[in-house]
Amino acid sequence: MHHHGTGGAESDKRTLRREFLAVRNTLTTDDVRKSALALAEHALELPELAHAHTVAAYVSVGTEPGTLALLDALRARGARVLLPALLPDNDLDWGAYAGEGSLARVQHGGRMALFEPIGARLGPDAVTQADVVLLPGLAADARGMRLGRGGGSYDRVLARLERAGARPALVVLLYDTEVVEHVPAEPHDRPVHAVVTPSGVRRFDRS
C-alpha cells in the first residue's frame, strides 16, 4: 500500500469496475435497446441538453448504456454532436457525428473495437467548445463522483476543459443499479452535474 492513499482508491476502483462490468455482461441485446430509448428520453429532458448547441458524446459499445438513440435525437434537434477518436496515447481527438453512416468500427490493438466518426478530425481541443460533455462511466455516487472505465482518456479531457476555463455540464449515462452510495474518489476527481439512467435524471449541485 502507498502511503499517499491513492493505492487504496485505485485497487478499490479496479475491484468495483470488475463487479459493475460483470453485471453489465448479463444484459441482453433487448435490455440494452430498451434502456437506450428510455435513457434518450430522460436525457433530452435535461435543460442543459435541450439548449445545447454542441454536445461532446460517445458511441456506446456492447452492453454499455446505449447512446445512439440519444445522438440521433440531439442531431434531429439541430445540436452539433462531437464524437471521440482514440489517439495512440489514450487522449481523444474529436469529429462530428453525421448519422449512423458516419461511423467506422476501429480496432485498437488488443482492446475493444470502438465506433469513431469518419471525416475531419477537429483536434483534442474541440471538446472545449461543448456546452455538455457526456461521459462514459461504470457508476456514480450520491455526491456525483464518477467511476470511470480506467483508461484515463476522460481524465485528460476533464483536465483540458479545466485548463481552457471551459465549464460544460458534465453528464454521465448509467443503469439504475450503478447509482450507488459511494465510489472511491481521489483529490483530482471532479463530480458530474447530472446522472441519467433509464428511470430518470439525478442532478447534483454545481459547487
List the helices and strands and how they pair.
Elements lengths: L5 H19 L4 H15 L3 H4 L3 E3 L11 H9 L3 E7 L5 E5 L6 E5 L5 E5 L14 E4 L3 E3 L4 E2 L5 H12 L4 E5 L5 E2 L13 E4 L2 E4 L4
Parallel strand pairs: 1-2, 1-6, 6-9, 7-10, 9-11
Antiparallel strand pairs: 2-3, 4-5, 7-8, 11-12
Helix pairs in contact: 2-4
Quick recap:
With about 210 residues, the protein is α/β, with parallel strands linked by helices.
Write a structural description.
Strand 4 and strand 5 form a beta hairpin. By secondary structure, the protein is an alpha/beta fold. The N terminus is likely disordered. 29% of the residues lie in helices and 24% in strands. The protein has 5 helices and 12 strands. The strands form 3 sheets. A 7-stranded mixed sheet has the order 3-2-1-6-9-11-12.
